[in-house]
Amino acid sequence: MLKNKSLQLILIFIAVVGLWSYIVGLPIDVTRDAGKYATIAKEIFQNGNYINLTIHGDAYDQKPPMLFWLGALGFAIGGISNLWFKLPVLLLVFAGFYWAYRLGKSLYNERVGILTAVFLAFSTMYMLYSMDIHADTPLQAFITLALWQLFEFIKTGKTKHWFWGFAAVGMAMLSKGPIGAAIPAFAVIGHILIKKEFRRLTDWRWYAGVVLAFLVASPALIGLMNQFGWEGIRFFFWENNVGRITGTYIQAKNDPIFYIHNLLYLFLPWALLFFISVYKEFNILIKNRFQSGEFFTFTGIWVFFIIISVSSNQAPNYIFAIFPLIAVLTAKWADIALEKQPKLTRIFNGTQYFVVGLTWLMIAGLVFYLFPNPVFYFWLVAFTAIAATFYVFRKLKEPAFRLILPSLLAFSVLMFLLNTHVFPFIFSHQAPPKAARYYTTHAATGEKLYNYKYPQYELFFYSEPQAVQLKTVEQLKAVSMEKGSWIFTNPEGLKDFEKLQINPDTIIEYRHLYLNRGGKFINPKTRDAVLQPMYLLKLSN
Questions:
Q1: Chain centroid, CA 235 distance in Å
Q2: What distance in Å separates the CA atoms of residue 13 and residue 260, rounded to the nearest whole number?
Q3: Measured distance CA(304)–CA(298) in Å, rounded
């Protein structure tokens, strides 16, 4: 079938548009958490201290160093920029697609492996979190590697799989703490216990592997010990993970179905296939009384899913770590349907055709109403995808292509539109990068930029020399007496400044979008009302 020249061109088109969509997300400005992580990576690169982490000079304990190391590596290669902060992480994401393929193949077969990688590469979550970087981005890649290698170790008993499996667990812990070990543990221990293969637990290598994982993760522990003592170690193992779940560290309102409705868009365009697959999986497990099959995927997904669903602190990125297993489960049932269940194939086809139609309607709503005037070559991409979709329906009879290709074509166009037009437009309404770049370009030698009452970190990343944090009115008063000071602040901070009765040489007002208010910004009718004033003040020389 792959000898069909038209089919080859369609596959090349999907691959090129998908890759292009990921790459064009690299230059988009970082903000909020990503801005904080980029700033830490910048400070590592500039001060050369890879163990004791800092943020605007203050000791930092919230995340382990892996993401920051990757960013610092990028800066060492290409200089400080959005692209070089994100590129090493994106390359790790791409490696994760390969590891996901090998995981699916190891658990089931070649086609499940291919579908697993495809479902991940063409999904909203991977597209979003390869552009807006979080610690979960490297976390999921190393968890994928750990899951693949540890399942190979279960199957073969080979020491090389043991080594790489537990080394990957350590790297996952270096990405986001103990959760990097918990998910592989849920998968491995759950699989062994349900299959009643208790003798496997007598293999000394399992316990030596725990030591290996902690040796790999030790730089995070050393840095915390250096800066925070035993309190830092306790924070790493308890507060920053269990504390978020129980609400003792961060308290938030719990929504027990939060991750179910978030999956509808995070795993677009495959979410409905996943829900059908979950139903089929539980149905067959109950019928078989959990007597056959692999339980690696089952316990790897559902133990963690239940934990985060009852957690007192919830965020969409928390589910990222089990996406490889979610994709494996979906790919498994897609393979079963295509191989031997025509009725299920029809259900899957009907589901995906509905999703394809919905995706094209979403694209139309974005380009004709919400965010009109995309880049001119978007139309070439869109019309090519539409033509290719008609070709698939009219000419291709292979069930796998008819199930998968229309979804890939529609979602490729959506990815391309978001990263070439929608996200650049949204992120262009961030005031801190604009203010920092203006200061960097116009400030004279010796002049300093200060941040006052803006709670995020982008200003520190984009300014050079890096901005200084002001925490009190007394500090604001002190720097206001210095000539050549630049101050970035919000309306509340501007009022504090005005009370000092000092006249700035320049006041530049920016219209800023707080991204947690992005829902109203999407609507053109309420867009302007959401934008908030921010100010860059310059004091006379």
A1: 23
A2: 32
A3: 10
pLDDT at 115: 97
The per-residue pLDDT of the chain, averaged, comes to 91
460 within 8 A of 30, measured Cβ to Cβ? no
pLDDT tens digit sequence for 175-223: 999 999 999 999 999 999 998 899 998 999 999 999 999 999 999 999 9
Which CATH number does 431-538 carry?
Answer: 3.40.190
Rounded to the nearest angstrom, the gap between the alpha carbon of residue 463 and the centroid of all alpha carbons in its chain is 25
The type of residue at 377 is Y
Distance between CA atoms of 523 and 521, rounded to whole angstroms? 5
- Token look-up 């116009």 returns 442
Dist CA 454 CA 184 (whole Å): 39
Distance CA 273, CA 414 (A): 19
d(CA 104, CA 331): 8
Q: How many residues belong to the chain?
A: 541
In the chain, the N- to C-terminal Cα span, in Å, equals: 73
In 3D space, the residue among 296, 356, 376, 357 whose CA is nearest the CA of residue 329 turns out to be 296
Mean pLDDT of 498-513: 85
**38-77 per-position pLDDT tens digit:** 999 999 999 999 999 989 888 888 899 999 999 999 999 9
Q: How many CB atoms lie within 10 A of CB 232?
A: 18
Strands 532-538 and 506-512: antiparallel
- For residue 187, which of 229, 140, 128, 146 has the smallest C-alpha distance? 146
Maximum Cα–Cα distance for the chain, whole Å?
Answer: 80
DSSP per residue over 309-377, as a string?
Answer: HH-SS--GGGGGGGHHHHHHHHHHHHHHHHHH-HHHHHHHHHHHHHHHHHHHHHHHHIIIIIS----TT
211 exposed, middle or buried (CB, 10 Å; 0-12, 13-18, 19+)?
exposed
Distance between CA atoms of residues 272 and 113, nearest Å? 20
For residue 297, the tally of other CB atoms under 10 A from its CB is 26
Report the alpha-carbon distance of residue 353 to residue 389 in Å, rounded: 11
* Residue 468 near residue 450 (C-beta atoms within 8 A): yes
pLDDT exceeds cutoff 90 at 314: no
Angle among Cα 75, 81, 87 to the nearest 5 degrees reads 65
Query: What does the pLDDT look like over 348-389, one tens digit per residue?
Result: 999 999 999 999 999 999 999 999 989 889 999 999 999 999
Residue 222's H or E segment, with its range, is helix 204-228
Burial class (CB in 10 A: 0-12, 13-18, 19+), 110: exposed
Question: Which one, of 339, 364, 357, lies nearest residue 393 by Cα?
Answer: 357
**pLDDT, tens digit (0-9, with 9 covering 90-100), for 387-424:** 999 999 998 889 999 999 999 999 999 999 999 999 99
